[in-house]
Amino acid sequence: xxDTTLNQGSPEVTAEIRDAYMxxxxxxxxxxxxxxxxxxxxxxxxxxxxxSRNAGGFWNGILNIFQFPGEVLAEASAKAANxxxxxxxxFPSLLETINIAAASTLVGGLIAIVLSLLxxxxxxxxxxxxxxxxxxxxxxxxxxxxVIALVLIFIxxxxxxxxxxxxxxxTAGALGKLFSEVNENADLKPVEGLASVGANWxxxxxxxxxxxxxxxxxxxxxxxxxxxxxxSAILGFVGSGGIGYDLKxxxxxxxxxxxxxxxxxxxxxxxxxxxxxxxxxxxxxxxxKV
Length: 290
Fold this sequence. Notes:
It is built from twelve helices and no strands.
């Protein structure tokens, strides 16, 4: 034993270990350098391709980046007296956008709860199907809302319903992933106790798991609600109603209607700031920070 310990700590063995470590470090640095070169080459080639296909070229257009905001601000300043009336005019459209976000968050959140419970190890009703439910959520997160909305608008026509379905679909995948991670930290003792007295799966989840994870679920849902307000405004550009549709129309008219653009931007900014502060306050209360 003594000889073995001595040999392991001998200068020859130490030098061999040091050389092996240095060789491994050089190899990692080489691979890191190769990956960096490949990344830069892909970025440069991608930029060159995009620039060649961009009308007018990027470097020619970058000089005019402040031209449009300047025109909007100049016209809005000249017609500042009209802004309050325009904000009142577009307020119903803003309420429609908020309603789309709220409904899609509620529907997507309810679907996410079911998917998260079915895809959490130790809680799943069908353990063999955990992988299937997780892949379903991956697909739901991977498809952008605007793609779903465009397909639904082609099928159902324009309006708030395609936007709500599209956002709810994406929300279910995004929240389902977050909810499942919260579920994994739940204490299983209440679930086991309920199972011992004959409770079925739904009762075990409702009484043993939901009370533990509900605050974090609500926190994530409020955060998602903020995101969905912005998403519903963006979907208005493709004909899904709400204030985004009015913004698209104001942009289409061009100069002479830029005061409407400014009024809509102000409404959106104030709304997002308001709900951001409100949801942040309640999220902090829910997780016990206040």
